[in-house]
């Protein structure tokens, strides 16, 4: 009989609790919106206590009439929480991964030889601690969201994280030549003035690491993994060279690099960077990540700010009213451009508008612009890895948009396979948990769980030369932001 896992998927904008069968079927699912707060420009924070109580209540609701064999956790990476070890209560607000308040601390860290970005947990942990305990006298505990949720569901008996989350904090040591020995870096902790006693135990991405004492039946915690790596596993990209893009609020490409050594933490020439895809027992599978800072946010802009569509789904129908953009090109850079340029001062732009330009042309141009950016990620990943991506797998909200998916196939000139599960993060955590519980013998066995909803073949190619010219014109619009490089 197949195993069943309760998966807690703690995302940036929602909490999802699901029962995932070992064969990849999702039997039951609850979703609760949990948007972060933005009290001022560049600040993103959340109520960690509310996050935990909501996740706990949702988990126990799912378990009222269902028994599970284990628990998996997948999470927004680098969002950071500080809490009291004795009471288990958060100390202040949690800082979201998009929060930019620690830019100054990132530059100061360079004096210690550390190259950190504000979307890493290192300076967030330092900042949170400095607000309440400058002398580090209190017995506080710090962690990313996976650690916080594991602490809560274990009644404080498990302070754990896995390599995919630890590896992007800026505080991790990876052993000789980055070959996968994961431990906290004492020098980095000292530079950030973070006591080592406060850090979580780094465990395997799949394997029993504690018990969920606060949940009905007290099942074991058997999987921990960051959201993008979970999506990579959820789309069965378990072989070297397989890649996926998640088109959600932003766009994240992840490419499986296998178990060879890698330059952890060092950005590659074409703007992607290495990550731990997962670590099973003593073997680390490495990955490469390329980032689009805004994907679905461009559709929200069309709907909420421009009023050109009534719903996100309308973008498909409106764009389909014309066969091409009639020369209109949209560069999606509402908050800058990530891979390959990493230009925080770039801004979105529409080019080629004429008196004959219609609403449909603009909506189609926006969808094609996101598709062109997705192709930028593919080309950067191939250039940085030396691996050809022959077929691309995708998930996320925009994967439901037929016009967009065809535009992605046309821009990239590659077949696109669409995940049958729109949010593959939950599925990935469930498959890793099933591996830990014995449903699979190895990650290679998970390849058989892939069953795409559809496969789209490329048609007439989009104009990449005109696209690149448009990107160059949109760059360095705010020179002082363009000059910042983390």
Number of strands: 23
CATH architecture of the largest domain: 2-Layer Sandwich
Radius of gyration: 22 Å
Task: Report the uncertain regions.
Answer: none
Q: What is the C-level CATH assignment of the largest domain? A: Alpha Beta
- The H-level CATH homologous superfamily of the largest domain, spelled out, is ATPase, nucleotide binding domain
Oligomer: single chain
* Distance from first to last alpha carbon: 49 Å
Largest sheet, described in full? 7 strands, mixed
Helix proportion of residues, in percent? Answer: 25-40%
**Helical segment count:** 14
Shape: globular
Provide the number of structural domains: 2
pLDDT average, as an integer? Answer: 95
The order of strands across the largest sheet is 17-18-16-15-21-22-23
Give the CATH topology of the largest domain: Nucleotidyltransferase, domain 5
Classify the beta-strand content into a percent band: 15-25%
Structure description:
This protein has helices at residues 48-62, 103-109, 121-132, 145-153, 163-166, 186-192, 227-234, 296-305, 314-319, 359-385, 402-412, 424-436, 464-474, 479-482, and strands spanning 4-10, 14-21, 26-33, 45-46, 70-75, 80-84, 94-95, 140-144, 160-162, 172-173, 183-184, 201-203, 206-211, 220-226, 243-247, 251-258, 273-280, 283-292, 329-331, 349-351, 392-395, 416-418, 454-456. With 486 residues, it is an alpha+beta fold. The protein folds into two domains: 4-229, ATPase, nucleotide binding domain (Nucleotidyltransferase, domain 5, 2-Layer Sandwich); 236-418 and 453-486, Nucleotidyltransferase, domain 5. A seven-stranded mixed β-sheet has the order 17-18-16-15-21-22-23, sandwiched between helices. A six-stranded mixed β-sheet has the order 3-2-1-5-14-13, sandwiched between helices. α1 packs across α4 (145-153), α7 (227-234) packs across α12 and α10 crosses α11. It is globular and about 65 Å long. The N and C termini lie far apart (49 Å).
């Amino acid at each position: 009989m197949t195993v069943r896992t309760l998966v807690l998927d703690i995302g940036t904008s929602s909490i999802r609790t699901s029962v995932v069968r070992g064969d990849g079927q999702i039997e039951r699912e609850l979703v609760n919106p949990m948007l972060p707060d933005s009290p001022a420009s560049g600040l993103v924070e959340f109520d960690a206590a509310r996050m935990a109580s909501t996740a706990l209540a949702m988990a126990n609701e799912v378990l009222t009439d269902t028994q599970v064999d284990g628990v998996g956790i997948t999470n927004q990476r680098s969002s950071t929480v500080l809490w009291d070890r004795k009471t288990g209560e958060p100390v202040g607000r949690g800082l979201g991964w998009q929060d930019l308040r620690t830019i100054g601390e990132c530059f100061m860290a360079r004096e210690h030889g550390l190259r950190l970005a504000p979307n890493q947990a290192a300076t967030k942990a330092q900042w949170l601690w400095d607000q309440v305990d400058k002398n580090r006298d209190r017995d506080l505990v710090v962690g990313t969201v996976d650690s916080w949720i594991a602490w809560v569901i274990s009644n404080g008996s498990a302070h754990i994280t896995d390599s995919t989350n630890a590896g992007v904090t800026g505080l991790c040591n990876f052993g000789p030549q980055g070959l996968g020995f994961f431990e906290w870096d004492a020098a980095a902790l000292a530079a950030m003035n973070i006591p080592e006693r406060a850090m979580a135990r780094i465990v395997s991405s799949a394997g029993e690491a504690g018990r969920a004492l606060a949940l009905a039946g007290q099942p074991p915690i058997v999987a921990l993994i960051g959201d993008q790596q979970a999506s990579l596993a959820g789309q069965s990209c378990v072989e070297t060279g397989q890649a996926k893009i998640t088109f959600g609020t932003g766009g994240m490409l992840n490419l499986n690099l296998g178990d060879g050594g890698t330059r952890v933490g060092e950005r590659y020439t074409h703007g992607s960077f290495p990550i731990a895809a997962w670590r099973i027992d003593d073997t680390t599978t490495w990955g490469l990540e390329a980032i689009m800072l805004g994907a679905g946010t461009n559709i929200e802009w069309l709907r909420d700010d421009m009023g050109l569509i009534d719903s996100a789904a309308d973008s498909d129908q409106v764009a389909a009213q014309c066969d091409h953009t009639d020369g209109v090109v949209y560069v999606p850079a509402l908050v800058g451009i990530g891979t390959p340029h990493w230009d925080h001062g770039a801004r979105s732009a529409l080019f080629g508008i004429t008196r004959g330009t219609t609403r449909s042309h603009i909506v189609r141009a926006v969808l094609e612009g996101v598709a062109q950016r997705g192709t930028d990620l593919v080309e950067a990943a191939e250039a940085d890895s030396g691996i050809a991506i022959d077929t691309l797998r995708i998930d996320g909200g925009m994967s439901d948009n037929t016009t967009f998916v065809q535009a992605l196939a046309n821009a990239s000139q590659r077949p696109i396979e669409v995940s049958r599960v729109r949010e593959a993060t939950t599925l990935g955590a469930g498959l890793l948990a099933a591996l830990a519980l014995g449903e699979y013998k190895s990650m290679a066995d998970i390849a058989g769980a892939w069953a795409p909803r559809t496969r789209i073949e490329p048609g007439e190619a989009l104009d990449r030369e005109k696209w690149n010219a448009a990107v160059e014109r949109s760059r360095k619009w705010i020179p002082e932001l363009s000059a910042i490089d983390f």
